[in-house]
Design goal:
Length: about 250
């Protein structure tokens, strides 16, 4: 457990997406990503300093030298949970792509899970890496990246199917970012991937947030996409990025 992790940010906020939207979490944003999504606005570059929220929910940060040790993380969690008893639902490992660090996470998560349940936010492409950690993860929120919004190649569909198959049996949900250019054919392919594993897996349609904070899809279009998905799957929900609406981290 001596290996450290390069962490971009560590903070406390409200989960704004997917199954745990509205829950307060401790967010551990790891560095690096294997994709280059067109809409991504997250700084996950590897740096010498981790931005650590000075107090949970304060929005002010201090610098922590990298790499960050498991001992430092565990001590911080002890402090924050004592400071705000009962406030946090879980720890969210996000990125970037946290599964790029699967080997280290496999040793860390059993200890961190003693503090709070583990929520994994992932781009849903690294199924072999998921296999290393899934027994220590309580919630998996996987993206299915659409060519219309993320700009990803067609080959990503097969990787998403492999990932969802690996995640099946866990508490897994699927999120897709949808914009005005998102087609019914793309949503049908999302439904194909999910229904080939288990149609009961929840699907979250997340309206694209543009750089100026506006929504990049009309209400009429997202309703059409919801209608299409709901004709194939029993649990389809539309949730915008709640944390951005709140002005939270």
């Amino acid at each position: 457990m001596s290996d450290g992790l390069y962490i971009s940010e560590l903070f406390s906020s409200i989960q704004g997406e997917g199954m745990l939207a509205g829950r307060r979490q401790i967010f551990v944003r790891l560095t690096g990503c294997n994709l280059d999504c067109r809409y991504c606005d997250t700084d996950f570059a590897k740096r010498d300093i981790c931005r650590l929220e000075s107090n949970p929910g304060s929005g002010t940060f201090i610098d922590l030298p990298q790499p960050v040790s498991l001992h430092a993380i565990s001590s911080l969690f002890d402090e924050w949970l004592l400071q705000l008893p009962g406030a946090h639902h879980s720890v969210s490992f996000t990125g970037g792509e946290p599964l790029l660090h699967a080997a280290v996470l496999a040793t860390w998560l059993p200890e961190i899970r003693k503090h709070l349940p583990i929520h994994l936010e992932t781009n849903g492409t690294l199924h072999r890496e998921l296999r290393q950690v899934k027994q220590q993860v309580d919630y998996i929120s996987m993206d299915i990246k659409l060519p219309s919004t993320a700009g990803t190649p067609e080959s990503q569909w097969d990787r998403h199917a492999l990932f969802l198959r690996e995640a099946y049996g866990s508490n897994v949900s699927v999120k897709v970012v949808v914009g005005e250019a998102t087609s019914g054919g793309e949503i049908s392919r999302v439904c194909d991937v999910i229904s080939s594993i288990d149609a009961a897996v929840p699907l979250f349609l997340q309206p694209l947030t543009l750089p100026d904070g506006s929504i990049g899809i009309s209400a009429a279009h997202i309703l059409r996409l919801q209608e299409l998905a709901s004709s194939r799957l029993p649990d389809v929900r539309v949730i915008p990025q709640m944390h951005k609406l709140l002005g939270a981290l």
